[in-house]
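Now for one record.
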Amino acid sequence: VVQQTGAPNAAQLLVQGVPCRDLHTKGTAPRLNGRMEYDGENNAELLALQRIDETCKQLQTQGNYLEALECMERGLVLRQHFFGADSDEVWRACKVVGEMCNLLAMTYLQQEDFAMVLELLKKAEILTERDNAGRAVTFNNLACYYRRQGKLHAALQYLQKALKIENKLDQVDNPADTYLNTCAVLSQLGRHQSALEHAQQALILLQEELSRVLGPMADGNEAPKADRIAVLAIAYHNVGVEYEFLKKFDQSLQSYRKGVEVSERFLGPDHAITVTLRNSCIAARRAIMVRDPQARLQNLESKGRKGRGGGAGTRRAKPAESQEAMMSPRPDGAAEQG
């Protein structure tokens, strides 16, 4: 892990950028009573910075994010020179560039360009030195990278770092997601009791998050966001998986069914998440009947048949990769897609 105590070294931040020596040989701009004193040279650099910022916005609008990142990095080098390496202006820019690195890293992860993913995320780790929320996102994404590489212990270490940061923050976007990602990794490592506890914590956080749009506190004025409903359904699924591993079969089936019920109600019977969870629930019932013939499954089986529809086309649907990564694999290792 690359650690750094001061402001980022611009040379470390560049993918393809302006060499630092070309910008730093002129010295630091003079200051007077905390304000910049502009001469012709400084005005030229400020205009160059403004042009870079405008170009960055245009590239992002066009969807050219890698070129936008390179442009942002050039702007960051200029800001270091123009405002000072430890200025608020530079650290605000670091935050924005770090967000872009994380966005691009996840795009390249889907394309399995693992070298680029790691380069971008290590860069984001440096850039988020003073952005705790951004660093937690970076650690989450590094965990996704290492999990895809089959390095589960490394993935778990980064998720634990992310949780440690998030637990100290007053405001966290989607805190349940880190718990679910941790649950899935712990499950793959065979640590099912701990995985269950993380899934249950995710459920608590999601129920708090969605209390205004679901349950008795809902006022009906706001529709729940589909992506958060999907995560809630996945949380129920993961609880079911871990109960199944722990041989608590009644609780397992209840949780599987609750996940399907939530997904069918709010996402629809043909949504990719609904199809995946329904197939997982069906497979779990069959597996549990084999393992525990004495289990009282008749009533659960009849209830579980409701809403089982969906043609062959929908059964092949897949959830979004980021959501699929949160799912704990079932004990028999059967494919969730049926």
In short: The two ends are 40 Å apart (CA to CA). Residues 88-110 form the longest helix (23 residues). The mean pLDDT is 79.
